[in-house]
Design goal:
It is built from 14 helices and 18 strands. By secondary structure, it is α/β, with parallel strands linked by helices. It binds NADPH dihydro-nicotinamide-adenine-dinucleotide phosphate.
Length: about 400
């Protein structure tokens, strides 16, 4: 009986649980484990109400490798879907190795004390996973995840060689709060405030955070938004796996209001990730800020508007220059109606379910540690259309940087 263990009962965990429950022919048994069991139980109750399916729950601290290994050995799932936080990735990979279970996540490992976004810690597990005959699939969310598959699919079907990649992530939604983040605030703010790195002529070039801005008009009337260049983790694996790329950049939309709040929070030190002493206690300001901000899982009912995330690629086909844009548009309210979450959690949770499905079915399963662009994009692209994230292609698309 294929059985999956989801670790992490946050906004993304809620979507993964719902989407796995919608595909009983693959996910015959589902266990949801997190630090706080009550959160797992609330999700299990919501899944039962929407789909009629039972999900079992467990409490576990994923950073306690012996405890997690014991739970895995007792439960014997075929696969762990890790949608806890990036800090837990290595501990969960260790427990999966010890218990002989395949592994999937949606974000690369981050050491808690430095905001570094690098695959080196997880790529270092390659040999151990190969020797054990186990698979680890890294970054099976939207970005990273679908953006890696979009790039691989364009390279496979539309180009002989790809030269530039611009990943564009627009959230045209509005949650009505003065300031909130759409996924875990601590992880989100660490990412946004980090120096920007983009790939140019064989090396990463560093520039100040959010220092380059352009206006981007999304297709299908979603709107025109300011997008800012920033570093994002999939750039590292994509430039390694597509060495013909001369330039690779990542862009995300931010409202003036979000940036104004961010600037003030930074200026007063509330986004700091190092501990400071406060009345005899050590506190990490960004963790305190997280406690004050709205829980991203609570944004679902209030968020309106659409996301538009995709990849613009240029290169050559049959000796002629070519460009193409492949993208998905996702409606916050439609996601809420389906699974009780806003679109950011939805666009992360659906690809996690699809990656898990392709592993459990055997379509993608192989030993070792893999990023998504290294695997055949076609079955993943087909499942995006089937399970709620339909995509479209525009050929001869021009992405103008002003
Ligand atoms: P949340 O903060 O909403 O949820 C995280 C969950 O992880 C919480 O339920 C928390 O448990 C649980 N958790 C934290 N520490 C532990 C631990 N030591 N042991 C067990 N469980 C733990 O985050 P999101 O759902 O918004 O994000 C989940 C992941 O998805 C993150 O890694 C994020 O970076 C990633 N992500 C990826 C995206 C992509 O496109 N690739 C986009 C958006 C997010 P508890 O509440 O019980 O304390």
């Amino acid at each position: 009986m294929p059985k999956v263990m989801i670790i992490g009962a946050g906004g993304v965990g809620n979507v993964v649980a719902h989407k796995c429950a919608q595909v009983p022919e693959v996910f015959e048994e589902i266990l949801l484990a997190s630090r706080t069991r009550a959160k797992c139980e609330a999700i299990a109750a919501a899944v039962k109400a929407r789909t009629g399916r039972e999900i079992r729950t467990a409490a576990v601290d994923a950073e306690d490798v012996p405890a997690l290994t014991a739970l895995l050995e007792a439960e014997r799932p075929s696969l762990v879907i890790n949608v806890a936080l990036p800090y837990q990735d290595l501990a969960i990979m260790d427990a999966c190795l010890a218990a002989g279970v395949d592994y999937l996540d949606t974000a690369n490992y981050e050491p808690p004390d430095t905001a570094r976004f690098e695959y080196k810690w997880q790529w270092a597990y390659r040999e151990r996973y190969e020797r054990a005959g186990l698979m680890a699939l890294l970054g099976s969310g939207f970005d990273p995840g679908v953006t890696n598959v979009f790039t691989a699919w364009l390279a496979k079907h539309h180009f002989d060689e790809i030269h530039t990649l611009d990943i564009i992530d627009v959230n045209g939604g509005d949650h009505g709060h003065p300031f909130a983040t759409n996924f875990n605030p601590e992880i989100n703010l660490r990412e946004v405030t980090a120096p920007c790195r983009h790939w140019e002529e064989g090396r990463f070039v560093t520039t100040p955070p959010l220092s380059r801005k352009v206006l981007f008009t999304c297709p299908e009337g979603v709107g025109t938004f300011p997008i800012y260049r920033m570093y994002h983790e999939e750039l590292e694996s994509l430039v390694a796996n597509f060495p013909s790329l001369r330039r690779a950049q990542f862009w995300m939309s931010f409202s003036d209001n979000y940036l104004k709040h961010l600037e003030v929070l930074q200026n007063v030190g509330l986004t700091r990730i190092d501990p400071v002493e406060f009345e005899g206690q050590q506190i990490v300001p960004i963790q305190f800020l997280k406690a004050l901000l709205p829980d991203p899982a609570s944004l679902g009912p209030r968020t309106r508007g659409k996301t538009c995330i995709g990849c613009v690629v240029t290169g050559v086909k049959d000796g002629a220059p070519k460009s193409a844009f492949v993208y998905n548009i996702c409606d916050h309210q439609a996601c809420y109606r389906e699974v009780g979450s806003q679109a950011i959690s939805y666009t992360t949770g659906v690809p996690a379910m699809i990656g898990a499905k392709l592993i459990l079915e055997g379509t993608w399963r192989r030993s070792g540690v893999w990023n998504l662009e290294q695997l055949d994009p076609d079955p993943f692209m087909a499942d995006l259309n089937r399970y709620g994230l339909p995509w479209k292609l525009i050929e001869d698309f021009r992405f103008e940087e002003h």
